[in-house]
Structures are given as structure tokens and as C-alpha cells.
Design brief:
Layout (H helix, E strand, L loop, with lengths): L1 H22 L6 H5 L2 H19 L3 H23 L5 H38 L4
């Protein structure tokens, strides 16, 4: 569980920094880039999506629910702070990116496990 949460936090941090760098036109240092409202909201979204990715077993459910989590978190941020950078679109974008990252990691780990199992069977003398 902690691995998926850590993936969510790091992915949220990177996505938030990327989105912030698009909206902020001035030169900004890395510490101010990390401490923006968009990056903080992306980290929270990544944390919650990481928890859901651990609970759910379906890649498509993780993707769709991550979009809704992103929309809810970003809209809540808008209601609390009034930071109006189109919260619905931004939340859907961050949620979709996080859902895609979790789906990719789930598919990659599943493929690696399958490949390792196949290699063990080949070493024991079984054919495909």
C-alpha cells in the first residue's frame, strides 16, 4: 500500500510542478514551484488516488475514479481558496494522468510477474 501511495505522491508532485510551470510565466525557483496551490492539490489527489489504487483491482475503475477524485479535490480547493484556474478541467486532467500512471504500473508489474513465472517454468523444463 505504501508503494502505491508513494507513487501517487511523487506523480502528483511532478504533475503539479508541470502544470504550475505552464501557468506561471515568470522565472520561479523549485521551492516556490513545489509550494503552490496547484502542486499541493495535485499531491493530495495523488495520495487519495494511491489509496484507491491499492483498494481496487481494476485498471479501468482506477482510471475513472481517479478522474472523479481529481475533479472533487480541485473543485474543493476552488471553493476554499477561490483559486480559479478552471478546477473541473484541471482536476480531470490530473486525475486522468494519475489514473494512467497507476494503470501503467499495475500492467507493468503484472507483466513482469507473468514473465518471471514463465521463465521459472521454462527452467524446470515445461514448455509454454
Amino acid at each position: 500500500m505504501s508503494k502505491k501511495i508513494l507513487i501517487g505522491i511523487i506523480s502528483g508532485l511532478l504533475l503539479g510542478m508541470f502544470i504550475t510551470s505552464i501557468f506561471v510565466s515568470d522565472e520561479i525557483n523549485i521551492s516556490k514551484l513545489i509550494l503552490t496551490k496547484i502542486t499541493a492539490t495535485s499531491i493530495i489527489t495523488g495520495f487519495i488516488c494511491g489509496i484507491y489504487a491499492h483498494i481496487s483491482k481494476s485498471k479501468i475503475k482506477v482510471f475513472i475514479v481517479s478522474i472523479f477524485i481529481g475533479i472533487i479535490i480541485f473543485y474543493t480547493k476552488y471553493l476554499i481558496t477561490g483559486h480559479n484556474f478552471d478546477p473541473l478541467t484541471m482536476g480531470a486532467f490530473v486525475g486522468a494522468m494519475l489514473g494512467g500512471i497507476f494503470a501503467f504500473f499495475r500492467k507493468a508489474t503484472h507483466s513482469i510477474k507473468k514473465y518471471n513465472r514463465l521463465q521459472r517454468h521454462k527452467q524446470k523444463g515445461f514448455k509454454k
